[in-house]
Amino acid sequence: MAAAMKLVAALNADVKGAAADPEYALEAAVRTVAELVAKGR
Fold first, then answer.
1. What does the pLDDT read at residue 41?
2. Is the pTM of this model over 0.85?
3. Phi/psi zone of residue 39: left (φ > 0), alpha (ψ -120 to 50 degrees), beta?
4. Distance CA 34, CA 20 (A)
5. Which end of the chain has a smaller Cβ tally under 10 Å, C or N?
6. Distance between CA atoms of 5 and 18, rounded to whole angstroms?
7. pLDDT of residue 26
8. Taking a C-beta distance cutoff of 8 angstroms, is the pair 11, 26 a contact?
9. C-beta separation of 15 from 22 below 8 A
10. C-beta of residue 24 within 8 angstroms of C-beta of residue 16
């Protein structure tokens, strides 16, 4: 749960301008969620 909350906080910042490419930030977040699910976290 902590990993997911950190991911959401980072994604929130990234799509609001912290990342150079918000679309890539979203793609990376989706990939990370898939990895967390695969690991059972």
1. 66
2. no
3. alpha
4. 23
5. N
6. 17
7. 92
8. yes
9. yes
10. no
Q: Domain ranges in the chain?
A: 2-39
- Chain position carrying tokens 């609001």: 16
**Residue tagged 């690991």 (tokens):** 39
pLDDT in tens, 12-32: 998 888 989 989 999 999 999
Whether residue 11 contacts residue 25, with contact meaning beta carbons closer than 8 Å, is answered with: yes
How many angstroms separate the Cα of 33 from the Cα of each of 8, 15, 23, 28?
10, 16, 16, 9
Tell how many helices (H) and how many strands (E) occur in the chain: 2, 0
